[in-house]
Amino acid sequence: MISNIIFDFGDVFLNLDKSAPYRDLTEQELVQAGPELYAINSAYEIGTLDSPTFIKKMRQLFNGRSSHELEILWNSMLLDLPEERLLFLEKLSAEEPYRLFLLSNTNELHISHVKASIGMERFSRFKNCFEQFYLSHEIGLRKPEEAVFRYVLEENKLNPEETMFIDDTLEHVEAARRLGIKGWHLQVGKEDVTELKSRL
Q1: Burial bucket for residue 54 (CB in 10 Å: 0-12, 13-18, 19+)
Q2: What's the rounded Cα separation, in Å, for the pair 186 and 193?
Q3: What's CA 142's distance to the chain center, in Å?
Q4: In this predicted structure, what is the pLDDT of residue 181?
Q5: In contact, 143 and 169? CB cutoff 8 Å
Q6: Which residues of the chain have pLDDT under 50?
Q7: pLDDT reported for residue 84
Q8: Would the keyword Cell division be found if you checked this record's keyword annotation (predicted)?
């Protein structure tokens, strides 16, 4: 029986447009950035880089673009948090026997933008639904590392066989499954987290 549920944030609750930042970059800029862009993002997501250093490195990578322009580009993937998902989550959090957790690969700029765009009242409503609210840049671990799932399981004394993980990225779900966690690879646009009860 599932009694623990670990949720991703982006494209599970918060709608995303993951390609948005790249649409505003030229092909030449993307080619020049190459793997260095991935490395900078990964370091930022685990808190190795702070926001000023991240923006500085991005400016070096995309020479000629201002800090303000790059920050707007970076946040352009973040869309809305539908009220029906928030209401669903609030109802679920009040039910027994479920213990709810959030586990998100994210960064300081994105979280600050989400708070500003949806408002602190709605952000607080969302956060208060979870027993623990794990953000990669705060805990120094990110998906799909198995270590991040072990961290959540061990810190909260969760039995993986009684735990479900929901994410829109298959690689993340597969990592959780290797530890015995039940996984739901949510198909964005075809499925919605509000259908969870049919999966338990």
Answers
A1: buried
A2: 8
A3: 9
A4: 99
A5: yes
A6: none
A7: 98
A8: no
